[in-house]
Amino acid sequence: MEKLSNRLMSWASIIDEKTVEQARTSSRMPFIHPHLALMPDAHLGKGATVGSVIPTLGAIMPAAVGVDIGCGMIAVRTQFTKAQLVSRDLTTLRQQIERAVPLSAGHDNRTIVLTAEPRIAELEELAAKNDFDPASYAGHWRNQLGSLGSGNHFIEISVDEADAVWMFLHSGSRGVGNKIATHHIGVAQRLATQWWIDLPDRDLAYLAEGTDEFWAYIRQLRWAQHFALLNREEMMDRVARQLSETMGEDVIEQERINCHHNFTEREKHFGKEVWVSRKGAIQADKGRPGLIPGSMGTASYVVSGLGNPLSLNSSPHGAGREYSRSAARRTFTHEQLREAMTGIEFRDTDAFIDEIPQAYKPIDRVMADAGDLVEIRHTLRQLVNVKGD
After folding, report:
1. 317 has catalytic annotation
2. φ, ψ for residue 72, nearest 5 deg
3. Which of 43, 226, 317, 378 is catalytic?
4. Please, are residues 159 and 381 in contact by the beta-carbon 8 Å criterion?
5. Whole-structure pTM value
6. C-alpha distances in angstroms, 351 versus 53, 155, 225?
């Protein structure tokens, strides 16, 4: 860990100066308490740095969570072994998963399936309690439950160091969460203009605790976080059905972990109750299970938190980009992607060049940097990869 200032701590051994400067700017906001923590995977974001933990007193910056509210990971360890899995047709398994889960931005479910119905009812009840209608943001939000999205979201079938088979996926609150976040970022920016608040970056606009605008954001943020969690649960049910068909017997869950890495919670740190916004970081209280994915084609990790107080009980959420998507497309080739994915069943398309492992920080380096934040319980190697364009 490196102390960059009294209000900025960093665990990142690979980080560029633009990212550091962006984090310094955020750390100087007057309500930061006691300091901002940069995780090993930190990289430049919009407004707030991706891979940062931002504790605030009496205010929240909606952009400190970002537009994919509740984005995170879910993993399930099954009873199956690698030897059992590799004897099956993995291409067919991938294609079945691709049919069962809508992929890519803008792709939703055509109908609401049985497993989704009780989850949607739960979300309807939660929205009513929080006095808002999600349809005001996305009229088809119900059809988004159980859909993956695009970018770095993925579904994988992996094996651990003991050859146990895991189902592993990454997604968030989809279009409805994006629109909720975008609305409240806009509200904060309009209030800053209205009250002549001088901001170092417009995306650091904040909502003051105690105002109607603040509590409206908190209620809708919590709803979107729960949508994201249930979205992952719904997709996991569908992946389990496809894996069961492939293996010829039902999946028996041995372990399940579901955690956010874009979210805000009320927590106590350094003697004060603060709002902790993690933008690309997981909660790592001592003993808390967590998930840290690598990039496409590399290892992922099942971890247990160490409860490091200086990190505000946090850890990285993944590898962290070194190349922007456009830079990755200019730098790497389809052939390099194929080479990186050797031995992994995936949809072979140049649409995924910007997700090539070389566009990310080395996950082994990130995990070494996180040595005082988490301990590794399992190392997962993917055998099947599913992504949206």
Report:
1. yes
2. 180, -160
3. 317
4. yes
5. 0.97
6. 31, 16, 29
pLDDT tens for residues 219-273?
999 999 999 999 999 999 999 999 999 999 999 999 999 999 999 999 999 999 9
Question: Tens digits of per-residue pLDDT, 105-135?
Answer: 888 999 999 999 999 999 999 999 999 999 9
Residues 13-68: tens digit of each pLDDT: 999 999 999 999 999 999 999 999 999 999 999 889 999 999 999 999 999 999 99
Confidence of residue 82 (pLDDT cuts 50, 70, 90): very high
Residues 6+ apart with CB under 8 A from 382: 156, 157, 158, 168, 297, 300, 344
Q: At what angle do helices 212-247 and 116-129 cross, to 10 degrees?
A: 170
Find out whether 260 and 228 touch, Cβ atoms under 8 Å. yes
The runs of H, that is alpha helices, within 29-173 are: 82-86, 90-100, 116-129, 141-144
**Which residue is associated with the tokens 């920080």?**
361
Two tokens, residue 126? 């939660």
CB 65 within 8 A of CB 248: no
Q: What angle do CA 194, 279, 101 make, to 5 degrees?
A: 110
- Among residues 185, 183, 101, the alpha carbon closest in space to that of 144 is found at 101
Alpha carbon distance 71, 85 (integer Å): 29
Q: Which two tokens stand for residue 29?
A: 């906001």
CA angle (185 as vertex; 180, 191 as ends), nearest 5? 125
Distance CA(383)–CA(162), nearest Å, equals: 15
**Amino acid in position 252:** I
Cα 110 from Cα 105, distance rounded (Å):
15
